């Protein structure tokens, strides 16, 4: 895992103790995410990686897995830079 993936994984495992997530495990289809946690996840990504998440970014595919979130964070940083 790279630094972004490690940080996301550490955040998720705080809420899912004892669960080992793979980079492409879909946390939505696994039932780990409800609407409240999805909002927390968006807030974590914004603050944790200093990115701004716009309404058009709020697609499940950006948040389904650790790998998807890493790619999303990298894309947002690239767009901002």
UniProtKB/TrEMBL annotation:
Domain Carrier: 19-69
SUPFAM superfamilies, alphabetized: ACP-like (SSF47336)
InterPro entries membership: ACP-like_sf, PP-bd_ACP
Pfam families per UniProt: PP-binding
Protein name per Swiss-Prot or TrEMBL: Phosphopantetheine-binding protein
Organism from which the protein derives: Pendulispora rubella
């Amino acid at each position: 895992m790279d630094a972004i993936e490690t940080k996301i994984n550490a955040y998720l495992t705080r809420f899912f103790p004892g669960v080992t997530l793979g980079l492409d495990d879909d946390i939505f289809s696994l039932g780990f995410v409800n609407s409240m946690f999805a909002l927390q996840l968006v807030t974590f990504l914004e603050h944790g990686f200093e990115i701004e998440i716009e309404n058009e970014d709020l697609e499940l595919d950006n948040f389904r897995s650790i790998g998807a979130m890493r790619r999303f964070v990298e894309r947002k940083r690239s767009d901002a830079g």
